[in-house]
Amino acid sequence: MEEQIDFIKEAGKKNTGDVSPFSRTMISKTLDQLELADHALVLEIGFKSREYLPFLFKKATGIGYYGNHISETLVTAASSAPALKINGGTAQFSHAKEEGTLDFGNNFFDGCFTVNTIYFWKDPVSHLKEIYRVLRMGEKLSLSFIDKKNGADLPWTQADFNFYDVDEVKTFFRKAGFVNIEVAQMTEELTGQDGKGVIRPFINVVGKK
């Protein structure tokens, strides 16, 4: 929970508890679209915490996970925690640059995923081009977000968020070079302050290099 609060502070937001941007369901559904093979190297842009890594490591043997985040506090906390020993998977974490530049070589990763991050990118196409660069040919980016019509009234999105509709995000993908772009309407169930379940829709976009 402390790591989640750090992320909210970094974005200049307060988590009201009514609708949380940190949902394992949203992350797991986003990950499922990558269909990772054994020993895949996977990049996450804007990781939230280490709590869902066991789920990732159980998807295939020997996965190499790389978490990237703009918060130095979050990176330090994740890096100093004990290593996870699940199915031969490994995890390492790095500090992200504001402009989205990634310190990895071309054609390095077998997949990339990111959840609830596109709102903060000053130039989404530049960020996507960097992701495209570090992906191996034929591999995928899976990106999930809340679209413009559903995001504007959320309590944690009242400033510094840029929301987009599906067509805008698809255009960003195409400009970055991605092909075979697929869009899926998905939902996740959250718990509100009253303890009742809340169904929240989100969009998943997958593009292939």
UniProtKB/TrEMBL annotation:
Pfam families: Methyltransf_11 (PF08241). GO terms for biological process: methylation. SUPFAM superfamilies: S-adenosyl-L-methionine-dependent methyltransferases. The keyword Methyltransferase applies. Coiled coil: none annotated. Gene3D superfamilies: Vaccinia Virus protein VP39. Keywords: Methyltransferase, Transferase. GO terms for molecular function: S-adenosylmethionine-dependent methyltransferase activity. Residues 45-139 form the Methyltransferase type domain. This is Methyltransferase domain-containing protein. It comes from Pedobacter steynii.
